[in-house]
Amino acid sequence: xxxxxxxxxxxxxxxxxxxxxxxxxxxxxxxxxxxxxxxxxxxxxxxxxxxxxxxxxxxxxxxxxxxxxxxxxxxxxxxxxxxxxxxxxxxxxxxxxxxxxxxxxxxxxxxxxxxxxxxxxxxxxxxxxxxxxxxxxxxxxxxxxxxxxxxxxxxxxxxxxxxxxxxxxxxxxxxxxxxxxxxxxxxxxxxxxxxxxxxxxxxxxxxxxxxxxxxxxxxxxxxxxxxxxxxxxxxxxxxxxxxxxxxxxxxxxxxxxxxxxxxxxxx
Length: 267
Hints:
Layout lengths: L1 E7 L2 E7 L8 H8 L10 E8 L2 E8 L4 E2 L3 H11 L9 E6 L2 E11 L2 E7 L4 E10 L2 E9 L3 E6 L5 H12 L9 E9 L2 E8 L3 E3 L3 H14 L5 E6 L2 E7 L4 E14 L9
Parallel strand pairs: 2-3, 4-6, 11-12, 13-15
Antiparallel strand pairs: 1-2, 1-17, 3-4, 4-5, 6-7, 7-8, 8-17, 9-10, 10-11, 12-13, 13-14, 15-16, 16-17
């Protein structure tokens, strides 16, 4: 089975074509191929199929669970599909389980490609009280194509980050789990975040998480609606406009290869 690997700010994904994995148990394959020591290693597996306008995709987290969309994963697929396309402002549409995501390439440098992606609008944005890991918190909830829980305030130290991230991901309020971001408004134009991704744990970056963090910070924390969102992996620009939330950042195709093991079959 052929695969490609790409990442955006350290948030990495493996890509395989749908035709190569017919009849394969994709949840089991994701757990095996994404393993950091005995597999290739990644935060998720994306199974894609080319379409006239771009591609359609399905996303599996490293633990084999399903996810609706990933902003960084979508851009990585864009970098893969447009790797041999020299148009300066190429556009592509990726069909996800959270709807269509439109990408415009705004720059190329070496192996990296920069995209401005329309990620959709936040749904059911609200603040609610919650008790997690013995702490009473006020969190911002929304759906950015996937469930998001944002904790505004000073970024937590490592032990508290791990304790609260795990507790919130699996909290009884979220029947299918949630992504978690801790967001600190540094200035109106700058927001720092830490990310606990559903089905993965700590990640260096998240596209939808960056969008959610900016929306929460602008709605409830005094941030501007157009700001730099800085994760451990680097800074991305997020614009919360009336028509959409736009995410701008780079993705990089790093390798292609062949998976030599047998593929787990579905029952």
